[in-house]
Design brief:
By secondary structure, the protein is an alpha+beta fold. Helices cover 33% and strands 23% of the residues.
Length: 178
């Protein structure tokens, strides 16, 4: 049953001895490391941890080996092909000899998050540089955002206006133009 679960899992599943040597690795683990040899058994997993994350990795392995379950943490692995992946790692002690390591590839998710943050910054820069006052309200007409021009027009600073209901006699132009 374990073999079937490991073979079909979408995450990397690796078991390690307390010295950090691989005792089991599923197919996703091989793909994650871009390692196509038949077996990684007996090799140190630390080999694939990016140098700036190795100290944290080794501390987490020691913690898991002692029976303490470290919180999930992020690190980067250096793949066999030289590329890097951002991975969320969860370590748990399996028994008196092994640790289980679940690795989830977050590379694409993190890249998307960085792109969205960059786009948000660009949009914020554009809106903040506009001469027209822009106020964003929620469904109950509470101010959730505004640009500096709106602060000047209303004569009040952002902290005073945020979270306040818009005056009932104000007419609003909705994003759909109505």
């Amino acid at each position: 049953r374990f073999a079937l679960i490991a073979e079909t899992a979408s995450d990397q599943i690796v078991t390690l001895n307390f010295q950090g040597q691989i005792t089991f690795i599923n197919p996703v683990g091989h793909r994650l490391l871009a390692h196509h040899e038949d077996s990684l058994l007996g090799q140190s997993y630390t080999r694939w941890i990016a140098p700036e994350y190795r100290e944290e990795w080794l501390a987490a392995v020691a913690e898991a080996a002692s029976g303490v379950a470290p919180k999930p943490f992020d690190l980067e692995v250096e793949r066999n092909d030289g590329s890097r992946l951002e991975v969320e790692v969860l370590l748990r002690r399996l028994n008196s000899e092994e640790i289980q390591c679940i690795g989830r590839d977050l590379t694409e998710t993190r890249r998307t998050q960085r792109e969205l943050a960059h786009q948000e910054l660009q949009l914020r820069t554009i809106v903040d540089s506009m001469a027209e006052g822009i106020i964003v309200i929620d469904a109950s007409r509470v101010v959730v955002s505004l640009n500096p021009a709106a602060e000047r027009i209303l004569g009040a600073p952002r902290p005073v206006l945020l979270g306040q209901p818009l005056a009932p006699d104000w007419q609003c132009l909705l994003s759909d133009g109505t």
